[in-house]
Amino acid sequence: MVESPNDPVVAIFGASSGMAFSVARIYAQKHARLFLIARDKQKLNDIERDLKARGASEVQSLVADLGSAFGARAATELLRQRTTHVDVVIIASGILGDTEQLLSDPKACEDLFNVNVQAPIAISNSILPLLLQQKSGVLAIFSSVAGDRGRASNFVYGASKAALTAYASGLRARLSESGVQVLTIKPGIVATAMTAHLPRGPLTANPEAVAKRIVQAIEKRKDTLYAPGFWRWVMAVITHLPEFIFKRLRF
Amino acid sequence: MKPTQSWGGMKGRESRQEPVYWKQDLHAALLRDTQFLCYGQGRSYGDSCLPSGGTALLMSPLNKLQNFDAQTGLIKAEAGLSFEALLDFIVPHGWFVPVTPGTKYVTLGGAIANDIHGKNHHKRGTIGCHVQELEVLRSNGETITCSPTREAEFFAATVGGLGLTGVITVCTLQLIPIASAFMDAETIKTTGLDDFFTLEDESARDWEYSMSWIDCMAHGKKRGRGIFFRGNHAKNGDPAAEFTEQAKWKVAVPFQAPSWILNRWSIRAFNELYYQQQQTRVKKGRMPLDPFFYPLDKILHWNRMYGQHGLLQYQFVLDSKRQQELTEIFDIIAQSGMGSFLAVLKKFGDIRSPGMLSFPRDGYTLTLDFQNQGPRSEALFKKLDAIVLRAGGRLYPAKDAMMSPELFQSGYPLWREFSRFVDPKFTSQFWQRVSRG
Ligand SMILES: Cc1cc2nc3c(=O)[nH]c(=O)nc-3n(C[C@H](O)[C@H](O)[C@H](O)COP(=O)(O)OP(=O)(O)OC[C@H]3O[C@@H](n4cnc5c(N)ncnc54)[C@H](O)[C@@H]3O)c2cc1C
């Protein structure tokens, strides 16, 4: 494959997550130059081969630990050494956690906030100078519908995603005149390894369909994407339920 | 813990369901438990895809490509990749799978484990004929890389090996080139089996795909009448553009399940109608890929229309000299009154199947599906079994739910040799049933 200067440059933090990988596959077919950042070398190798076979004009894997702000900054530094330009930055690293364990094990709770909040914010903060200097690019941050309102079943995870949602919306406002776009992605339940232990219901979406919508939202420079789209309406209802009703709904 | 289910609606024993996302996760899983079976998309009808307890390794998330050469059409991919996803990727590049079953919701691993055949058996043999290499992970942690020339015996056991020789993790497949995403197709109304025999022989040279739908309720003079289908990939076109167009139609025109399937008012009426709808003897046309290869896929869970007892398929192959027995079988079915919506007749060619337990071999193969009516179905199948056994034929494990150990062992004389290659931690309900005695 011959690289052309018009091939989009896409950097993906947490590239081994199911949704991020599906997004990467779409970009590979558009002959993108891809930078993949994740912890597991073997997984990165497998993904890299797939994306190359699908037509990516270049794939580089960067092994990094996205489990802390420190690791995340180091990862961003690695990326900046490899490229001086980036069109799309996707921050997809995150963990779901088990609410019971998160409540009883302070270390687990801290880890979750490190991975889900500290690291993504650190990545974003440290890639920002490059984006501002370019005056272009999209920063796509994976939050979740779970961040719209705390639910009895997964509110610690929800709290971490709420932090990201707030961060992203504030950053978007701040960057509104800069040429840089911030996209908040709010998926519902998607059938990936992260949710493999949960029952698959009619609301479970497949990652390929969600990925298509994400790429569209990036191209159209949208602010917030609910994926699948019906979640926008579901969450509109849920966030408006009065507390005295909501607290009895143990869903 | 829950039971896995097969396409015919058969429920397995309870097993742990473990989706496999990464090759390296398999190693840990295989150490942990004591009994396994891989599960692709469960498009096998009977119990050959049902684990007998232990862990069902759900293979479809393991679907990454490893290599694709757009010049030579050689593709290397993880075994959970579906034909659907594969075609979405290769057709725009001008390639097609060398052999495909009547549904695209199967995985590469599942297709190889059953050494599937298509409407082009006379031209290309089975899928196994086009497999260049396999990586198989055994429960002792060993990976065996095999091909027709390397670890050839193990390769012959694994192709068509019903998932019993270990986990197929990676497959290398030679694709066939296409110049268009359209098919040039012909349908011919036939008057009886002799007509079919002649048409198969006449089409074998110039037509890549051929098979026939038979009205198996018709008897007497009408016995064996049906519609003969044949097709070739169109010669000129632009696969990428045409395929994108075809994908758009799919979204634009959602298919309605025809009422004949939903109502089941009469198989006889359906068969009569289906036969009579074609006015002229020959119809020619240009068709997109999906309706040509996968007409049933439009109705996603059509198997459920057979009610809660599910459906049974029955597919056998008989030597081409056994036309007499074939006729006998049609008579028994017509008399039984149990009928079948789908009776598909095809002549296999003489390309040798590479697997020890591969089903296809030179001769006629007939596929029937019946609503599961318990003892009535069993009685009918027993009668058919007796003829197949007497004629030295065999049944297709992918479609079977009740053949006897005797019939299996006589149909697959290499089964004992094969069993030397079975992984000690792998078994299926099918295998436990037919390898007895
Ligand atoms: C509508 C329809 C039409 C069909 N038409 C045809 C046809 O024309 N010709 C034909 O030959 N068949 C046909 N079939 C049958 C179908 O092609 C086979 O049953 C196929 O093997 C199903 O693939 P699967 O991925 O769903 O595998 P499953 O049914 O889930 O499993 C099949 C076997 O493969 C094994 N297996 C699966 N993955 C692996 C792996 N990675 N490693 C090792 N073993 C594995 C399983 O253990 C099992 O033994 C048809 C089925 C349907 C529903």
Give the gist of this structure:
Chain A is of the alpha/beta class and 251 residues long. Chain A has helices spanning 18-29, 41-53, 69-82, 99-104, 106-134, 155-174, 207-219, 230-240, 243-246, and strands at 9-13, 33-38, 58-63, 88-91, 138-142, 181-187, 224-227. In chain A, helix 1 (18-29) runs parallel beside helix 2 (41-53), helix 3 packs parallel to helix 5 (106-134) and helix 5 (106-134) runs parallel beside helix 6.
What does this structure look like?
- Chain A has nine helices and seven strands, in the order βαβαβαβααβαβαβαα.
- Chain A has helices at residues 18-29, 41-53, 69-82, 99-104, 106-134, 155-174, 207-219, 230-240, 243-246, and strands at 9-13, 33-38, 58-63, 88-91, 138-142, 181-187, 224-227.
- In chain A, strands 3-2-1-4-5-6-7 form a seven-stranded parallel sheet, with helices on both faces.
- In chain A, helix 7 (207-219) links the parallel strand 6 (181-187) and strand 7.
- Chain A starts with 8 loop residues before the first strand and ends in a 5-residue tail after the last helix.
- The relative contact order of chain A is 0.13.
- The mean pLDDT of chain A is 93.
- Chain B has helices at residues 23-32, 83-90, 108-113, 121-124, 152-158, 193-203, 239-252, 259-263, 267-276, 289-293, 323-336, 375-390, 405-411, 415-419, 429-434; strands at residues 2-5, 11-19, 36-39, 55-58, 65-69, 74-78, 95-96, 131-137, 143-146, 167-174, 176-177, 182-190, 209-214, 226-233, 282-288, 311-318, 343-348, 363-371, 394-395.
- The radius of gyration of chain B is 21 Å and the shape is globular.
- The two termini of chain B are 31 Å apart.
- Residues 7, 37-44, 48-49, 59, 79, 101-103, 106-107, 109-111, 113-114, 116-118, 162-163, 167-168, 296, 398, 428 of chain B line the site of flavin-adenine dinucleotide.
